Amino acid sequence: MVRSQHSRSPSKRLQGIMPLGSQSPARAYLAIVTKTISPNAYGQVKWQGCYWTAFCEEEQTLTPDTLVWVFDTSGNKLAVQPDLPE
């Protein structure tokens, strides 16, 4: 699994796919877990109306219906974390 370097702000790649005219950038990066994301395993999130394969760099399990913050991409996968940026 390819891992991006942990960051507290969205990557430049991710900023390029943010919806145009977004009133709240932090809100635009919110996703909801739809299939469990386990340590060292992919899961799935729903983000901007589409389902994406996702992974979490932190060693924890994210269960369905958990709100997560999308902070990077790795190919066609999203890197997510359970806490929102400050």
Quick summary:
The protein is built from two helices and five strands.
Written description of the protein model:
This protein is mainly β. It has a domain of 56 residues: OB fold (Dihydrolipoamide Acetyltransferase, E2P) (Beta Barrel). Helix content is 9%, strand content 36%. It has a five-stranded mixed β-barrel. A hairpin with a 2-residue loop joins β4 and β5.
Report on the biggest sheet: 5 strands, mixed, barrel
Share of β-strand residues: 35-45%
Helicity level, as a percent range?
under 10%
In the CATH scheme, what's the topology name of the domain at 26-81?
OB fold (Dihydrolipoamide Acetyltransferase, E2P)
Radius of gyration: 12 Å
Low-confidence stretches: 1-7, 19-24
The largest sheet has its strands arranged as 1-2-3-5-4
CATH class of the domain at 26-81: Mainly Beta
**CATH architectural group of the domain at 26-81:** Beta Barrel
The CATH homologous superfamily of the domain at 26-81: Nucleic acid-binding proteins
Layout of helices and strands:
Elements: H1 12-15, H2 25-28, E1 30-35, E2 43-47, E3 50-56, E4 67-74, E5 77-81
